[in-house]
UniProtKB/TrEMBL annotation:
<dbReference type="GO" id="GO:0016616">
    <property type="term" value="F:oxidoreductase activity, acting on the CH-OH group of donors, NAD or NADP as acceptor"/>
</dbReference>
<keyword id="KW-0479">Metal-binding</keyword>
<protein>
    <recommendedName>
        <fullName>Enoyl reductase (ER) domain-containing protein</fullName>
    </recommendedName>
</protein>
<feature type="domain" description="Enoyl reductase (ER)">
    <location>
        <begin position="12"/>
        <end position="365"/>
    </location>
</feature>
<dbReference type="InterPro" id="IPR002328">
    <property type="entry name" value="ADH_Zn_CS"/>
</dbReference>
<dbReference type="Pfam" id="PF00107">
    <property type="entry name" value="ADH_zinc_N"/>
</dbReference>
<keyword id="KW-0862">Zinc</keyword>
<keyword id="KW-0560">Oxidoreductase</keyword>
<dbReference type="InterPro" id="IPR020843">
    <property type="entry name" value="ER"/>
</dbReference>
<dbReference type="Pfam" id="PF08240">
    <property type="entry name" value="ADH_N"/>
</dbReference>
<dbReference type="InterPro" id="IPR013154">
    <property type="entry name" value="ADH-like_N"/>
</dbReference>
<comment type="similarity">
    <text>Belongs to the zinc-containing alcohol dehydrogenase family.</text>
</comment>
<dbReference type="InterPro" id="IPR036291">
    <property type="entry name" value="NAD(P)-bd_dom_sf"/>
</dbReference>
<dbReference type="GO" id="GO:0008270">
    <property type="term" value="F:zinc ion binding"/>
</dbReference>
<dbReference type="InterPro" id="IPR011032">
    <property type="entry name" value="GroES-like_sf"/>
</dbReference>
<dbReference type="InterPro" id="IPR013149">
    <property type="entry name" value="ADH-like_C"/>
</dbReference>
Length: 368
């Protein structure tokens, strides 16, 4: 079949909407008619920087839509089901077998490789290959081929544009707070970098009734949004050195913050957060940083029982975590709607520009 896809033809170039031919779903695969797809900084990172993904390529990894057809062996969803698509994993390596598919041994090949696991190119224009299968989907398109493992069934009452970002960004932020850091009401919490992923982490702290919730960002609008969504305190870190950030955090909680999520990966910011962390506190890093990035810390800060930990995809198994998080949303405990700004699919380049400039927190493309 043919569909319209947003193709990245050169590093740094805008996406161009073109017709591509998509193969039929093979064993373990399914065809999804997309209704919405969120844009994540990982898409923009691959658009701008060489990360081993072959070109031309169709990106997009927060797809949501309706199953059109299923290949052999796909049993948990059927044509007509509403679904949200998440990251791909192999299902049989040691981490997949122990329900940690986010640390799948084949994560890079399956999510960034550009070809299907058997080496086949997933899309074509005439005889010319178009690479895809990005995060097991390539959802900047009218239709995508996904896998049973990364396709999560969606209840009828969640709009596609609110469901789509659960596939990556919201799962990453919220999962880091719920799963990696296990935030509790007895904890003070801070998020450093209040974009969509950071604010999703903050929403988890709001859900868990953390008694103090601090948002740190350089953009005043983001801090206003964070306050509207439940932050009890805000720190504008514009121009702050590491020591200033630590002092600002300790001005709010003199003994230090119990749980911190950093979405920046910036050395001085991480150092400042770590120095503002309480004894036995934990700080999680989730930013994918540019090659060559280094972080300098004073190792003595770790001696107070402090932990610095990294996580991808919120330490979450999408098949169990996404339905659970959607349940929190439906119960009124995880209201991410203020993060979402919708765009027509044809406005994809405008949406990317708005996200990069901070005018949109979580752009979601609508395919219908
Ligand atoms: Zn695996
Ligand atoms: Zn993502």
């Amino acid at each position: 079949m043919t569909t319209t896809a947003a193709i990245l033809r050169a590093r740094g170039a805008p996406f161009s909407l073109e017709t591509v031919t998509l193969a039929d779903p093979g064993p373990g695969q399914l065809l999804v008619k997309l209704a919405a797809c969120g844009i994540c900084f990982t898409d923009v990172g691959v658009q701008r920087y060489e990360q081993g993904t072959p070109l031309p390529h169709v990106l997009g990894h927060e797809g949501a839509g309706t199953v059109m057809a299923v290949g052999a062996g796909v049993e948990h969803v059927a044509p007509g089901d509403r679904v949200v698509l998440s990251y791909a994993s192999c299902g049989h390596c040691p981490n997949c077998a122990s329900h940690h598919p986010q640390y799948c041994a084949s994560f890079m090949a399956l999510n960034y490789g550009g070809v299907l696991p058997d080496g086949a190119v997933p899309m074509h224009q005439g005889d010319a290959p178009v690479y895809g299968g990005f995060f097991g989907q390539s959802s900047f398109a009218g239709h995508a081929i996904a896998y049973a493992r990364n396709t999560v069934k969606l209840a009828d009452d969640v709009p596609f544009e609110l469901a789509a970002p659960f596939g990556c960004g919201l799962q990453t932020g919220a999962g880091t707070a719920y799963n990696t850091l296990d935030v509790q009401s007895a904890h003070s919490f801070a998020v450093i970098g209040a974009g969509s992923v950071g604010l999703a982490a903050m929403l988890a702290a709001v859900d868990r009734d953390c008694h103090t919730i601090v948002a740190v960002d350089r953009v005043a609008d983001r801090l206003d949004l964070a306050r509207r969504m439940g932050a009890t305190h805000a720190i504008n870190s514009n121009g702050m050195a590491a020591a200033d950030l630590a002092l600002a955090l300790r001005a709010i909680v003199p003994t230090g913050i119990d749980r911190i999520v950093d979405t920046t990966g910036v050395s001085a910011v991480v150092r400042g957060g770590l120095e503002g962390l309480a004894a036995r506190g934990q700080m999680a890093l989730l930013a994918v940083t540019a090659p060559g990035t280094e972080i300098t810390i004073n190792p003595n800060t770790l001696l107070g029982g402090r932990r610095l930990v990294g996580a991808v995809e919120g330490d979450a198994d999408p098949q169990s975590f996404i339905p659970w998080l959607l349940g929190r949303h439906r119960a009124g405990r995880f209201n991410h709607a203020p993060l979402v700004q919708t765009y027509a699919f044809a406005q994809i380049n405008e949406a990317v520009a708005d996200m990069a400039a901070g005018r949109a927190v979580k752009p979601v493309l609508l395919m219908d």
